[in-house]
Amino acid sequence: MIDKIRNHVQYEQIMKLIEHYIQKATAGGGFHTLNAQESEELQKLTLLAEHYEDNVLQIMPLTVTINAVVQQKISEMNITQGKLAEILGIGAAKISQILNGKREPDVRFLKAIHEKLGIDGNFILDRV
Q1: Are residues 121 and 71 in the same domain?
Q2: Which residue range forms the structural domain that includes residue 25?
Q3: pLDDT tens digits, one per residue of 78-108
Q4: Which residues of 66-89 are buried (b: 16+ CB within 10 A; e: fewer)?
Q5: Final residue belonging to a domain, choices 39, 57, 75
């Protein structure tokens, strides 16, 4: 087994092996169905891929913001910011300022998006 991914071709090969083990585990009912050697190899391959992604590809974790989620809800509901303001019981100007990053969301806004839009409270708390 290789000890370091040196190029993108090797990375793609490693990812195919990882995908093979994932498919095998999924078809078998879970990762516990892999034997000890397969589990150990999957763990090593995953660490190699992670190291390559972090240090060579420099894949940045996706940061999902409250504003992005609210904008997505507006799109899903096919409404305007004005209609959102009405639904949340908050002024349209305030909604616009918050969604455009000119004003920090306050407790009233956060509570309203949780209660009226169904945005998870833990998600909200993690981002304020």
Answers
A1: yes
A2: 8-57
A3: 999 999 999 999 999 999 999 988 999 999 9
A4: beebbeebbeeeeeebeebbebbe
A5: 57
